[in-house]
């Protein structure tokens, strides 16, 4: 299973749709917040894709939750924007929340900085911000062999 992970699109539906079109083999799109309107538009543009989205600190009019947990291909994903865990300061609260949820993979945003950390059986992934010419995102492959994370920029 291939998952596209994005965050912090902040109205840049152009970059968001460009990445989805480029990676036709994705099964699931995860948006880690600050782009509720973009998720709404992308769902209309790509009705064949499964979308999972959480609320960011700039998503004022959305019914998306602050936290989403889901199991895909036997791996538990803990998804949040990160602002409620103060991820701009450190990742301890987020790591503990992910471990408490029994997660294999924690997906978050908010800092706009791509991050890929493996900590004692737990992956922490922030795809960065997909907004603008330096936008970034991540592809996550889940298989029987495990989890493979690939951070990318728009120009790669």
Question: If you had to describe this structure to a student in words, what would you say it looks like?
Answer:
The chain has 156 residues and is an alpha/beta fold. Helix content is 19%, strand content 35%. The strands form two sheets. It has a five-stranded mixed β-sheet, with helices on one face. The longest helix is centred in the first third of the chain and has 10 residues, at 13-22. The two termini are 21 Å apart. The mean pLDDT is 97.
Task: Give descriptors for this structure.
single chain, 156 residues, alpha/beta, five-stranded mixed beta sheet, 3 helices
Number of strands: 10
Low-confidence stretches: none
Helix content: 10-25%
Order of helices and strands: EHEHEEEHEEEEE
Distance between the termini: 21 Å
Mean pLDDT: 97
Query: Order of strands across the biggest sheet?
Result: 3-2-1-9-10
The secondary structure category is alpha/beta
How many individual helices? 3
Alpha-carbon Rg, integer: 14 Å
Shape: globular
Strand content: 25-35%
Main sheet? Answer: 5 strands, mixed
In a few lines, what is going on in this structure?
The protein is an alpha/beta fold.
């Amino acid at each position: 299973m291939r998952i596209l992970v994005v965050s912090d699109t902040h109205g840049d539906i152009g970059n968001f749709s460009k990445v989805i079109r480029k990676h036709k083999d994705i099964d699931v799109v995860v948006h880690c917040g600050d782009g509720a309107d973009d998720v709404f538009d992308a769902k209309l543009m790509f009705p064949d894709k499964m979308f999972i989205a959480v609320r960011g600190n700039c998503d004022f009019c959305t019914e998306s939750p602050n936290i989403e947990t889901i199991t895909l291909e036997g791996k538990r994903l803990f998804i949040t924007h990160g602002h409620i865990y103060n991820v701009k300061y450190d990742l301890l609260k987020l790591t503990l929340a992910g471990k408490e949820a029994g997660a294999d993979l924690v997906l978050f945003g908010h800092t706009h900085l791509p991050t890929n950390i493996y900590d004692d059986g737990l992956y922490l992934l922030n795809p960065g911000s997909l907004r603008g010419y330096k936008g970034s995102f991540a592809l996550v492959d889940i298989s029987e062999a495990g989890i493979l994370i690939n951070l990318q920029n728009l120009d790669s």
